[in-house]
Each structure stands twice: as structure tokens, then as C-alpha cells.
């Protein structure tokens, strides 16, 4: 399967959050602008990380403090306080920029980089007092902000316009979940037929209609012969619960968003997947639809990489290493949304032969009504 992605940022690596660099020569006002912009963005509910580049080094600790003594002895030092944390690395353990961005992208909505004008990142260029344009060798400049004018407002308006598109343009994958035991159904759900197709085929067709070749089967269950060529992932080893499949998907494509679907939704169509994908927006890490009875449906839902990263961290802290997507329902970044009335049938699931037969009868009745 191809791992190519539509990357609006233009960088040569994938990152879990959109990245925007603010560049300009010394004295152009980069720090002043970023300080104000970060306050605006955080006030709007976004989680923002700032990465500062300084060729002259930093003064970050006081000589003689325990932390400074540890650092000078050769250690990487992590300082933890009641409301803050700081990590100090030496020359022998510096992380490449792309690794830093990947780490921060797993838990933020937007990464703002000060400097790094020579790196293939999307950029805002701040003109110094005597400038009117960036130098020709600086690439990927999306907007130039002149010295004069309200740059704080101009930057805020640009981010409001740019960020939603950058968020939605990140890689979107689909997972057909085939790892359930199907004890109530009495046989593997993915092989059960409904209207001439197996439930696995119904789910795969719906996902393919939106994510194309980025759809994979996740789990160790048997696939119908018609899906034998579909790429497969095993559940993440060492984890229990349905979230083991989501962790496996995240590890396979850690910067991607995933729409996952269990094989118990006989009415699922591409329109349902399109509706899920349309709910993506900055600050929302998971979109979990509510069924007609009001119950959330975390196994037919959309998860951004930030949510999947959190799911794995929570599972690692659980004594049984139980990975439960329902643990994400209380996050402020989780959107619990009721699908439009015309799409509510997509989240109707079947767990027993009796429920399956009832849906067959209901489907026949609906077909007669349409005639």
C-alpha cells in the first residue's frame, strides 16, 4: 500500500498536527507576533506548541542548580513541577527537527516554529523595516506580512483560513475491524451475509468509497474470498480489548486519521463515511456518533492521531493493558455527534441472528415502500 499523503505543509515527513513556521531576519518581530498569536489561539481552545530556533544557544538554567549540575555531568534532564515540565538535551542527544515535531504533534493541534527558514515547512515571512519581500531562496512562503500594519490580526485571520484545510488534508485511512469473537452471533460477523454480501464487504465498500486504497483490515479474523487481497494488520500485541486494533492502526500510520468500522453495520454506505470525514476540524481529536437511542458508537467512528496516541498511553497505564475506545468519550476534544436523520441507519448494528433477521425484514419493507 502506498504511504503517500496529500501534505499541505510541503515538508518531507508526516506529522500528527499541522506545522507553520514564522520566519524573518533578526529584529523583524517574530517573537512578539508569536507571543500574541499563541495567546489568541489558546484562547480559542486549541492546544499549541512552539518550537524556537536560536543559532546562538539558550540560557535555560542557573549554574549550580541541581538540574544544571546533572546536565553538565552529561545527562538529559527532565524537570517536572506541579504545572510545568521542561526537557534539556545536550549535543549528544539532540533530536532532529522532524522527530521533535512528530513528538509534539501527537498531543497538540498546531505546531508553530520560529525560524528554520531553510526547512521545507509552510511559512509566514515577517518583513523587517527595510524589507518588502522575502529573499528568493526562501521557499514555501504562504503569506508575507509587511513591517507596517496590524500583523497580529493578519496572522490570526490567516491561521483561521489555513488551519482547517491543513487539518483535513492530512492522511485519512480506513480500518475494517475483524477481530471480534462474535459470541452472540454464533459465527464471525464479518462472514455473515446481508442482501447478498458479507458484512465485511459492506464495510469495506463503504470505506473504499472515501479513503480508496488506504483501507485495511485490522484483526486476525477470516476475510471473505472477495477481500483476500486487502492489506491486513494484526491487533497490537500485549493489549486487550477492541482498542488493540486502533493501536495497531496508529502504529502503522502514526500521523494519519482513521475511520474504523466494526463488521456489524449492515446498512453502512459511503455516505456515512463521508459524513464522518466532514466533521474533521482543528481541536477535535475524535468524532464518535450517537446511535438513535443516544448511545455512542466508538467502533464506527473517526480518530485523529492525537486521540489514538492518548488511547495507547491510557492502555499502557492500565493494569490489564485494556484498550477501551470508550475511555476517550470524556475528552473535551471528543465530539459526540448525532448523524442526520437520513444517515442514522448507518450506525444500526446487529449482534445476534435475531437482530440480523429483523434488519433483513426491515430492509425488505423499506424496499417495498420505495416501489
Question: What does this 3D model show about the protein?
Answer:
This protein is α/β, with parallel strands linked by helices and 371 residues long. It is 30% helix and 18% strand. The strands form 4 sheets. The protein has a 7-stranded mixed beta sheet, sandwiched between helices. Strand 3 and strand 4 (85-88) form a beta hairpin. Helix 5 packs across helix 7 (270-278) and helix 6 (243-252) crosses helix 8 (305-317). The radius of gyration is 24 Å and the shape is elongated. The model is unreliable at 1-12 and 367-371 (pLDDT under 50).
Quickly describe the structure.
The chain has 371 residues and is of the alpha/beta class. The chain has helices at residues 30-43, 66-72, 97-105, 151-168, 199-211, 243-252, 270-278, 305-317, 353-370, and strands at residues 19-23, 48-52, 77-80, 85-88, 110-114, 123-126, 141-145, 172-177, 193-194, 197-198, 215-218, 232-233, 257-262, 286-289, 300-303, 334-337. The two termini are 42 Å apart.
Amino acid at each position: 500500500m502506498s504511504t503517500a499523503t496529500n501534505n499541505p505543509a510541503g515538508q518531507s515527513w508526516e506529522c500528527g498536527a499541522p506545522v507553520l513556521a514564522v520566519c524573518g531576519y533578526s529584529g523583524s518581530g517574530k517573537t512578539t507576533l508569536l507571543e500574541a498569536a499563541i495567546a489568541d489561539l489558546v484562547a480559542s481552545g486549541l492546544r499549541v506548541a512552539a518550537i524556537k530556533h536560536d543559532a546562538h544557544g539558550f540560557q535555560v538554567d542557573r549554574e549550580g542548580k541541581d538540574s544544571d549540575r546533572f546536565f553538565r555531568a552529561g545527562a538529559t534532564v527532565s524537570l517536572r513541577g506541579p504545572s510545568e515540565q521542561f526537557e534539556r538535551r545536550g549535543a549528544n542527544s539532540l533530536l532532529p527537527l522532524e522527530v521533535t515535531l512528530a513528538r509534539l504533534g501527537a498531543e497538540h493541534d498546531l505546531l508553530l516554529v520560529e525560524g528554520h527558514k531553510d526547512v521545507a515547512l509552510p511559512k509566514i515571512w515577517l518583513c523587517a523595516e527595510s524589507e518588502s519581500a522575502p529573499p528568493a531562496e526562501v521557499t514555501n512562503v504562504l503569506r508575507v506580512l509587511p513591517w507596517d500594519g496590524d500583523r497580529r490580526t493578519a496572522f490570526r485571520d490567516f491561521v483561521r483560513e489555513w488551519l482547517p484545510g491543513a487539518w483535513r488534508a492530512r492522511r485519512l485511512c480506513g480500518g475494517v475491524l475483524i477481530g471480534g469473537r462474535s459470541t452472540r452471533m454464533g459465527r464471525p460477523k464479518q462472514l455473515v451475509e446481508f442482501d447478498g454480501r458479507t458484512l465485511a464487504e459492506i464495510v469495506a465498500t463503504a470505506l473504499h468509497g472515501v479513503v480508496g486504497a488506504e483501507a485495511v483490515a485490522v484483526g486476525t479474523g477470516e476475510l471473505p474470498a472477495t477481500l483476500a487481497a486487502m492489506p491486513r494488520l494484526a491487533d497490537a500485541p500485549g493489549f486487550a480489548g477492541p482498542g488493540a486494533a486502533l493501536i495497531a492502526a496508529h502504529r502503522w500510520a502514526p500521523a494519519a486519521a482513521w475511520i474504523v468500522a466494526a463488521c456489524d453495520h449492515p446498512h453502512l454506505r459511503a455516505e456515512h463515511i463521508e459524513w464522518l470525514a466532514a466533521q474533521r476540524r482543528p481541536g477535535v481529536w475524535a468524532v464518535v456518533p450517537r446511535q438513535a437511542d443516544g448511545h455512542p458508537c466508538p467502533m464506527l467512528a473517526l480518530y485523529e492521531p492525537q486521540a489514538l496516541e492518548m488511547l495507547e498511553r491510557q492502555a499502557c497505564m492500565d493494569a490489564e493493558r485494556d484498550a477501551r475506545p470508550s475511555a476517550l468519550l470524556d475528552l473535551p476534544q471528543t465530539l459526540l455527534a448525532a448523524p442526520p436523520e437520513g444517515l442514522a441507519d448507518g450506525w444500526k448494528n446487529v449482534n445476534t441472528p435475531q437482530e440480523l433477521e429483523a434488519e433483513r425484514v426491515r430492509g425488505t419493507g423499506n424496499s417495498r415502500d420505495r416501489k
